[in-house]
Amino acid sequence: MRPVRLMKVFVTRRIPPEGRAALARAADCEVEEWDSDEPIPDKELERGMTGAHGLLCLLSDRVDKRLLDTAGANLKVISTLSVGVDHLALDEIKKRGIRVGYTPDVLTDATAELAVSLLLSTCRRLPEAIEEVKNGGWTSWNPMWMCGYGLSQSTVGIIGLGRIGQAIARRLKPFGVQRFLYTGRQPRPQEAAEFQAEFVSMPQLAVESDFVVVSCSLTPATKGLCNKDFFQQMKTTAVFVNISRGDVVNQDDLYQALASGRIAAAGLDVTTPEPLPTDHPLLTLKNCVILPHIGSATHRTRNTMSLLAANNLLAGLRGEPMPSELKL
Ligand code: GLV
């Protein structure tokens, strides 16, 4: 009998059990994993990638030309445990004929839920209010105290009415939102019809929205999209929420807009960099609520993502159709 050549798979972090088990069952693969909840050091990543046929990585692993060179010609599939793919050097990957798997759809509900939680926490000032209870700032019921902004009768502007943007709009509608606006690469009349959402320019969205929600992907076209000009055009009572990627926002401009009262508040699930240093100026602002990139963080969603990422990887290595392959 000819000895069977196992395909080498490298996994850059301990992943949830369903995906891990699926990889462990793959008799045609030899799986090596960075068996830790902490990020893999560069040297270990380079070592693990050398000669690998498949890589299962996270959104925090930068897969650039240098790493692809290190991996060498064996590398056939990259499977990322994320819907975002901005950490992957897609041009280089395409040139080398490497297939890419990702995890859309399965995280849409969890991410939309988080976006709504963050929006409500920010506009109704929940972290600030909780802090006041703890530090003795709650001295009486005060008609003028801790007032925020509500969704009822409001206009919500969504930057990127993709799967997650639509799921957010669907959840916000029952709160009594009066009008939805959206912007993006092109109008999406079919998707927008459910919310009677109007396709508008970025400036119109900034001027007319009470809430701005960023749910687009990070691309060269969206990098730095929300900048000084954009914040200048927003209402002073408006609330800005970003659940996409930190780099869609010019963070210095956002800081200025919040610190000067140019806009009312911001809720961010994503920042630049991640993690945000604990001495970052944004963390000194009461009107900025920051979460540690937990959009998809429910037990079930992360487990489902890990299984999908494992199945994408295995299908790609076996030359089969992947459950979720990125078109390159
Ligand atoms: C989360 O940000 C993801 O891209 O999955």
TrEMBL record:
Residues 117-295 form the D-isomer specific 2-hydroxyacid dehydrogenase NAD-binding domain. The keyword Oxidoreductase applies. Residues 9-326 form the D-isomer specific 2-hydroxyacid dehydrogenase catalytic domain. PROSITE patterns: D_2_HYDROXYACID_DH_3. InterPro entries: D-isomer_2-hydroxyacid_DH, D-isomer_2_OHA_DH_cat_dom, D-isomer_DH_CS, D-isomer_DH_NAD-bd, NAD(P)-bd_dom_sf. Keywords: Oxidoreductase. CDD domains: GDH. SUPFAM superfamilies: Formate/glycerate dehydrogenase catalytic domain-like, NAD(P)-binding Rossmann-fold domains. It holds the Pfam family 2-Hacid_dh_C. Belongs to the D-isomer specific 2-hydroxyacid dehydrogenase family. PANTHER family: 2-HYDROXYACID DEHYDROGENASE-RELATED, GLYOXYLATE REDUCTASE_HYDROXYPYRUVATE REDUCTASE. This is Glyoxylate reductase/hydroxypyruvate reductase.
